[in-house]
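Entry type: protein chain
Record version: 2
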Amino acid sequence: MRHRYASHLLLPLLLLATAATAAEFWLRPTRFMVAPGSRVHLGRWVGAGFQGQRWTGLSTRLEQLTHFQPGTTEPQDLTAPARQADTLSTTVTLAQPGVHLLALRTNDAYLTLPAAEFEAYLKEEGLSDVLWQRQKRKQQDQPGREAYRRCAKTLVLAGTLPAADTTFRRRAGHPLEIIPEQNPYALKPGASLTVLVLADGAPLPSQAVHARLRPTDGHPPQDFTLRTNQNGRALLRMQYPADVLLATMQMRRLSQHPQADWQSTWATLTFGFTAH
């Protein structure tokens, strides 16, 4: 049966932008396209709209750092060397030609917001289900105690693209992740890119995915929101060369947790689109 996708054309006249101002966390390499053998620093950023500041979290916040290399079946676990110093180290060597997938996951941090601020935050993020749950339990006037974690992935191309390269769609096993179903480095202008959103390994329907495109050819920035279909997929059409950030967030209720009533998980995917 043919799937129906939530879609959006990346054309200025058709663009319906929506803002999401809550903090996102993403990986941004020095460059998205490098020569094989290059050492690449993965910048860790936090902010909104693909703008922000460097994340200064200590190495103790790192849960896992994984490198999926082209032509290999087992990922390289970089967690231990990344944690060797108090300051997190995220510089990697991309030895093999092809697309490399780097995946970083943090452990939980905790935040408590006054009731009014938490309710406003939930409305801004479109978390109507969480608002409904708080209303049902008569908790609208209670502070929001949140545990939050971050799951960030980036795709970097080293050298030329091999004929058969599927590293881009490997699953990192994050509690929330965005997976491209086509290789973004192999797409031509006007081609479609389908992304799959997974929560605990299962497709997540009706999930908002924020897209941030920063064209590298002089076109204006583009920010808009997609929503996944019943199969957890969303579609966007790649029009111009750009650096791309895709972001999504999920919040679930926690029971009998000593520090938090809600668990939020923030997931991002970054890559470069060359429009070749």
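Comment: Residues 115-124 form the longest helix (10 residues).
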